Amino acid sequence: MRDTTKPTGLTEVYITTFGVLHGEPPNGDALTVDLRHALRNPFDDPAMRELTGFDQVVRDHVLETEGAAEIVGDALGRIQAALTWARGWHDPRIVDVHVFCKGGRHRSVAIGQELYRSLTEDFGIGSEITHRDVGKPVVYKH
Question: What does the pLDDT average to over 111-122?
Answer without folding.
Answer: 97
